């Protein structure tokens, strides 16, 4: 009987945790798109919103801009599939070009 009580309690906790996670993700996405006003009357208010009020304007990171300076609205991570041999060759080339790599010929001497 005690096992069923534990299963029920942890199931309820799991549902609460997942609901909280979804709610936080939604609120984070809304908060990220929000712009904050930059009028000078809020600049003097250094209470809890001192950091938000001190922001002049939203300046995105340069990697989020295209060549024309517009904000990119597409995925930034694009992965292409390669086979294992190509990946191993690329890793070997990186390893051999590293400054700490000693060639086999210098180790034999």
Global outline: flat
Number of contiguous helices: 4
The class by helix and strand makeup works out as mainly alpha
Report the strand count. 0
Distance between the termini: 74 Å
Keywords: Membrane, Transmembrane, Transmembrane helix
Transmembrane segments: 6-26
Protein name: DUF2973 domain-containing protein
Organism: Komarekiella delphini-convector SJRDD-AB1
Characterise the protein shown here.
With 109 residues, the protein is mainly alpha-helical. The protein has one domain (2-99). Helix content is 50%, strand content 0%. It contains four helices and no strands. It has helices at 2-33, 50-54, 84-96, 104-108.
Task: Please write out the topology.
Layout: H1 2-33, H2 50-54, H3 84-96, H4 104-108
Note the main attributes of this structure.
single chain; 109 residues; mainly alpha; 50% helix; 0% strand; flat
In short:
This protein is mainly α and 109 residues long.
């Amino acid at each position: 009987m005690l096992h069923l009580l534990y299963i029920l309690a942890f199931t309820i906790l799991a549902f609460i945790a997942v609901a909280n996670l979804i709610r936080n993700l939604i609120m984070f996405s809304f908060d990220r798109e929000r712009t904050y006003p930059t009028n000078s009357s809020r600049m003097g208010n250094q209470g809890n919103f001192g950091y938000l009020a001190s922001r002049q304007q939203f300046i995105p990171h340069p990697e989020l801009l295209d060549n024309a300076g517009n904000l990119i609205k597409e995925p930034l991570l694009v992965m292409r599939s390669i086979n294992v041999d190509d990946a191993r060759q690329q890793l070997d080339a990186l390893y051999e070009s590293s400054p700490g790599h000693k060639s086999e010929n210098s180790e034999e001497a």
